[in-house]
Amino acid sequence: MIRFLCVLLLPVFLIACSKTEPADLVLLGTVHTANPSQPVAEGVAVRGGRILDVGDETDLLAYIGEGTRVVHIEDGAIYPGFTDSHMHLRGVGERELMLNLEGVTGIDELRQRLAAEIAARQPGEWIHGRGWIETHWKPRRFPTREDLDEVSPMNPVVLVRADGHALVANSRALALAGIDRDTEAPFGGEILRDKNGEPTGMLVDHAMTLVTRVMQPGRVDAAEALITGARRSAELGWTSVQNAGTDWAEAMLLRRLVADGRIRIRIYNAVEGPGENAGKLLREGPVVGLYDGRFTLRGIKVSIDGALGSRGAALLEPYADADTRGLITERAEDLLPMYRTALQKGVQVETHAIGDRANRFVLDLYEQAFREVPAEKRRLAEPRWRIEHAQILAAEDIPRFARLGIIPSMQFSHAIGDLHFAPARLGESRLAGAYAWRSLLDTGIMIAGGTDAPVEKGDPRIEFYAAVARRDLDGYQDAGWHPEQALSREEALRSLTLWPAYAAFEEGERGTIEPGKRADFTIYGEDLMIVPLERIPEVPLFMTVVGGEIVYRNPELHETD
Ligand SMILES: [Zn+2]
Fold first, then answer.
1. How far is CA 158 from CA 111, 127, 141, 218, 537, in A?
2. If you average pLDDT over residues 52-56, what whole number do you get?
3. What pTM does this model have?
4. What CA–CA distances, in Å, run from 414 to 304, 389, 470?
5. What CATH code is assigned to 293-503?
6. Helix crossing, 89-97 with 222-235: angle to 10°?
7. Which CATH number is 99-212's, of 3.40.50.970, 2.130.10.120, 3.30.200.20, 3.10.310.70?
8. What is the whole-number distance in angstroms between the Cα of residue 88 and the centre of ligand 1?
9. What span, in angstroms and rounded, lies between the C-alpha atoms of 546 and 558?
């Protein structure tokens, strides 16, 4: 297959054939447009960052002229630029640059990796790691401060769980933060304790700030982390990412990096709320489509509960495996005024809700805000507010998304990671409303698909596979894991292209391959729409194209240019 992929500069004789001003770029190969009126084509021509034409190869050859770059994709396929509807750009970059604990197989390996890091550091220096997840470990248990103390008695250590909703700190870090048996957890947080009442080192949700606020600034530079995160996203095939929750300074830094051309993919941003960041956006209003549509800031990201793995997700009934219902981490009276102003100012709201109680809480609040600020008093009659994750839903809440015009922003990979522990947390009957993609689509709405990276790996192939297979990467599916909720490949494609564009008010500009839209493409070396299911996660990426510009090209998949 590799030898068929080649990049050619145009043969000179074709210049004579040009029927019009030549294109900058002509891509020839199978095109899946995600446009129902012309689902498949043989190529696409691009000029000035926009799509000139989509059609048969013979039509497209006529656009080849002087300076046209022609790329033949023999066995692969061209898709609209993939968009990650929910990710954390800085976290993705930091994961690459700091102690990366992704894929650690147990406490022993966690300790080995930590010991290696400490050997390279000064005594007393803070160690900050991220990415461990215990759900596959044997025994499956949270790490404790004692686990870390043995390898790090002198350096304060903070290791954040992959989901970003919990961390383990060693005794040195707890001491510097002043956390002991008498410390009370802040609202919306939890300090896990052993049978003697001593902190185990595990801090959940808002309790994490007890230690993170005393940490020295990490060695990772913010600009470097953002650039690294954007570069990694392009290398995975993302042409656009929706950055779920940043602070104002970071958003302004991002804007500068995009303006300077140091970030070349598109970034759609939401700032954290409630608080000063959200207040500033509400006062100043959204910033939309700067630098050829590469930078937008128009959202507020709110978080309302924790994660299912750490039992922070807020459930209507207690967990099946613990005597708790999880935590709602915000108060309605703190959110409603912000929600009302957001409607008046045309600011989009995206609220993180995992548990069924959290989802109902948010649906109720959105509904109340919509009632109090009716369409004629809003900046945008159709505000397209979102619920991030929408992971566990009570049956009666599923139709409310369509009724209220709320977009579920979901991460298919969560379902295939969580299938190993969610049945234990939720019990059989609640699984019917868990990761309920088909039930939601059947109400007539769209699902904006995303990765939640660095919580998950952040690879579009894994999301696509998870959406259509609803099995883990080994092909495993727990009994009762509702295979009927899986998506078709056409739906999976739309959920990573057109539907995220809609969720960002960008469907007129991108999301399908149609003349006039921005020339964003994700190109794979094999066709995701036809390869066997188990091949999907391995299909090689060929190119990532943003606004007609090749921002990533797989060095192993071309021979000549
Ligand atoms: Zn997230």
1. 13, 6, 17, 11, 32
2. 97
3. 0.85
4. 18, 9, 10
5. 3.20.20.140
6. 100
7. 3.10.310.70
8. 6
9. 19
Q: How far is the CA of 241 from the centre of ligand 1 (A)?
A: 12
CA of 495 to the centre of ligand 1 (A): 17
Question: What is the number of residues in the chain?
Answer: 561
Is the predicted pLDDT of residue 246 greater than 60, yes or no?
yes
Question: For the chain, what is the mean pLDDT?
Answer: 93
- 2-81+520-557 is classed CATH 3.10.180.10: no
- What type of residue sits at position 298? R
CA distances from 60 to 4, 43, 64, 449 (A): 20, 7, 7, 32
Alpha carbons 395 and 436: distance in angstroms, whole number = 10
Which residues, by Cβ under 5 Å, contact ligand 1, an ion? 244, 452
d(CA 454, ligand 1 centre) in Å: 8
Residue 282: pLDDT band with limits 50, 70, 90: very high
Q: At residue 14, does pLDDT exceed 50?
A: no
Which of 70-74, 271-275, 380-384 is predicted with the least confidence, judged by mean pLDDT? 70-74
Question: 6 C-alpha vs ligand 1 centroid, how far in Å?
Answer: 38
pLDDT at 481: 93
28, two tokens: 């020839």
pLDDT tens digits, one per residue of 432-481: 999 999 999 999 999 999 999 988 889 999 999 999 999 998 899 887 89
Q: Distance from first CA to last CA of the chain, Å, rounded?
A: 17
Of 226, 228, 265, whose CA–CA distance to 518 is shortest? 265
In 107-237, beta strands by DSSP E: 127-132, 157-161, 166-169, 189-193, 199-205
- Calculate how far, in angstroms, residue 232's C-alpha sits from the geometric centre of ligand 1: 17
Q: How far is the CA of 388 from the centre of ligand 1 (A)?
A: 8
| 417 vs 474: CA distance, rounded Å | 11
* Ligand 1: centre distance to CA 85 (Å): 10
Q: Where do the domains of the chain lie?
A: 2-81+520-557, 99-212, 293-503
Give the per-residue pLDDT at 216: 75
Query: The tokens of 547 are what?
Result: 């606004």
Q: What is the pLDDT of residue 165?
A: 86
Q: From the CA of 431, how far away is ligand 1's center (Å)?
A: 22
Q: Give the pLDDT score at 19.
A: 54
Cα 546–41–57 angle (5° rounding)?
95
Amino acid identity of residue 5, one-letter, is: L
Query: How do residues 171-209 score in pLDDT, each as one tens digit?
Result: 999 999 999 999 999 888 899 999 999 999 999 988 999
